[in-house]
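Q&A FORM
Asked by: J.P.
Topic: structure of Alpha-N-acetylglucosaminidase

PROVIDED:
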Amino acid sequence: MMMRSILQYVVVLFLLYQSYAIESVIQWPKPIASSSSAKAITDLIDRVLDGAPVAQLFQVSINADLAINGKDVFLLSNGSASGSILISASSGVAAAMGFNYYLKYVAQSSFYWSGKNIRLSGSSLIPLSTPIRILANDFFRWYGNPCTFSYSAVFWNFSRWEKEIDWMAMNGINLVYATTGMEYIFSKVFLQMGFSQSELDDYFTGPAFLAWHRMGNLQKHAGPLSRKWHASQFELAQQIIRRMTDIEIIPVLPAFTGFMPRSAPKLFPTAKFYNSSDWVGFGCNESCMVYLDPTDPIFKQVGVALLNETIISLNITSHYYSCDLFNEMTPPVSDLNYLADVNAGIFQTMQMVDPSAVWVMQAWLFLSDFWTTDRVKSYLSKVPPGNMILLDLFSEARPQYPRFESFYGHFYIWNMLHDFGGNNDLFGSLVNVNDGPQAARNYSGQYMIGVGITMEGINQNEIMYEFALEQSWRSPLSDGALDEWLVNFVMRRYTSTDAIPSSALYAWQLLGNSVYHNNPHGADTLMLGRPGLDGQQVAHFDLSSLSLAWELLVDASSEIDSDLFRYDLVDITKEVLQYKFATIHTELIAAYKRADLYGVSTQAAILVDILADMEMVLASDRRFLLGNWVGDALQFATSEEEIHFYNLNAKLQVSIWGNNYTLGLFDYARKFWSGMIQDYYAPRWYVFFDVILKSIVEGKPVDSHLLGERLFLEAELPFFMLEAKIYPTTTRGDSIMIARELYNKYRSTLNDITLPVSTSKQHQLRFKHYTN
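REPLIED BY: S.T.
REPLY: Here is the structure written out as C-alpha cells.
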C-alpha cells in the first residue's frame, strides 16, 4: 500500500515537472509589433468617442515588458495632465481593453454591435481613487467561426470592418481568422499552375457561401466570383490586416487544406486525390469537392506556393495558420498511421514556409462518431506540442477537452459558440459561461490558453458575448455577484441624465434567470420554420418570466428613451410574439385534427395578425431590417446582372440556403427581420393555411409533397430569385409606442402562452450542417 502511494506521489511530481517545463519553454510567437500601436489606440479612442475633445485626455503608453509570463496587463491611473487618464499596457489590445474597462466600470458607458451609450462629457475625465490593474487569465482571446465571415461579414466595407476591429480590441480579442480576400490569392496561384478561368468559375461559390467553400463542403453554388470581386476583397483584406496588426491583433491566415478545382486530377495525374462527401444533399455538381491527399508530395508543392503567395501579397508573416481538412466529412481511411501522416503532411507544409508556424485547428470535427479517442490521439500525434492550438468550438455546451484528455498534450482555447446561422432569437447560458473557462483551467492546467467566441453570426444576444469575453480576466461570479453584474450591465447600457427605473433592472434580472440562465441551445422557432403539420416548438425556460420582463420594460419606457433601450424593447417584444405564435399554432393543429373548419379559420386569422404585428415592430428599429443586409450586398453591383447576382446571394442564404433538394438547410440562417416576415415567412404561412383549409373542406389529408411544391413555387422561389425589391434601410413607426400598443393588445392573454418544456439534458445539436 505504501509503495503504491509512493508511486502515485512520484507520478504527480513528474506531471507537475512536465507541466512547468512545457510552460517555461512555450513562447507563443507574435508578428513584429507596429511602432504605431499607441497611435492606433488613440485613434480608436477618438473614433469610439466620435472625436469629442475628451478623447484627447486618454494618454496611452504601451510597453511589452509589462506582460507577465506572456499574458497581457493593463494599468489605469490618473494621468499627468489635469483630468486625464493614463492607460499603461503590454500591447495595443491590452490598452484597448483598458479603455473599455474604464468606459464600463468607471464611466458607466458601453460599446456594442447595436450601438453605444457613452457617458463622457465636459473637459475632464472621471478621476480614479486608486489605480486599477488587470492581468489576463490566459494568453489568447479568440474571435470567430469560419461561418461568421459569411453569415455576418461577407458584404462589409472597411468602414464596417473598422468598427468590428475596434470592438474586438476593446473586448481583448488578439487572435482572429483572416480569410477575407483569400480567393484572390488562390485564384492567382491556381491560374499560374495551369487551371483555366472557366475551371475556377466552376470552383468558387458565390460570396454568401464562401465559408463552406473554404471548408471543403461546397463548390460552384451561387457562383461564380468575378475578377472585380476578387480585387475588391483583396484590397479590403490588406486594409483589415494592416489595422489588426497596428492594434496587435494577430491575423490567422489560411493554409492549404488540399481542396482544388474538380479538374485537378487531370492536371496532376500522378497525385493521390479524394472527394469530400455529398454535403447535406447538394449532390456532386455543387459538393463532393476534390482534395489532394496531404501525404502526397504534390500537396507540399501546392501548399508552399499558396502560403508563400499569401505572405508575400499581404506583406505579413503571421506565424498562425488555419487548416480544417475534415470539416463535416469522414476521412477516406481510418488507419491510425494514415491519420497521423495526414496532419504531419499539413503541418510540415506550413513549416516549410514558416519555421515558427502555429496551426490553429477547429476541434469541431471531433463531434463526429468517427473520431474515437485512439483516432484523435493519432491524428494529433505528429504535430509538436506548442505548434498547434485547437479551438474547442462549443465549449459551453459540448466541450471536447475532457473527452480527449485536454487534446493529448496540445493547447486549446475554450470557446462559446452560442449562435448558429446568425439566428437572432434570445437565449444563452450565463451559468455555463461563468463556470466553464475556470473549470477548463482547473482540468487542463497550462494547456487551456484562452477564451473565445465562435458564433456563426453576430448582432444578437450582446449580453452573452460581453460576459464571455470578460471571462478572459475575471474569476467566476457567485449567484449574488452575477445578479449585481446584470444590474451594472443595465446601468451602463441605459444610463442617461435620468435615473434607471427599478422595473428595467428587475426585468433584466428575470431574463438573466430564465432566457439567459441555462439555455445554451435556443429555440427552433416555429414562426420562421417551414410550415407543416408536424411543427412544434418547446420552451427551455419559464415563459412567464419573459412575459413579465416585457411588461416591466414597457413600464420602464415611460422613463427611458435611449437608443439601446429601444433596441432591447423591440428584441423582447419579438420574443413574446414568436412564443405567442407557437402557442396559437398548437391550437390551430388541434383544430385541424378535429376537422374544425371554424376553429382552423379563427386560429389562422390570429396567426396572420401576429405576423403583421411582428413585421410592424421589427420595422421600427434599424437593427432589424432586411434592407441592411441586401443593401450591403448591392453595394458591389454596378450592372443589372450584378444586381441580380448579389441579390440572389444575400436572399438565398437567409431563406432556403441551398436548393429545393437540401431541405435540411431551409431556414438555417433564419432572421427576425422586417422584410423577411412580410415577403418570405408570412407568404409561406398563407400557403399553409390555404392548404389545410382546403383539406378540411374536401375531406382529404394534406399531401405533404404538394404542400412543399406550393411553398417553394409560391413563396420561397419568388423571394430569393424572382424579386429584385429594394428594401428600406430606414425605420417605420416609433418602437416605444408600438411596443406599448402590442402589450395592451396581448396583455390579457400573456398567461396563455404555454409550450411543452424541454426535459432532455442533452439537447439535439442544432447545427444542421453537422453529419457523422
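FOLLOW-UP: The longest strand covers residues 73-78.
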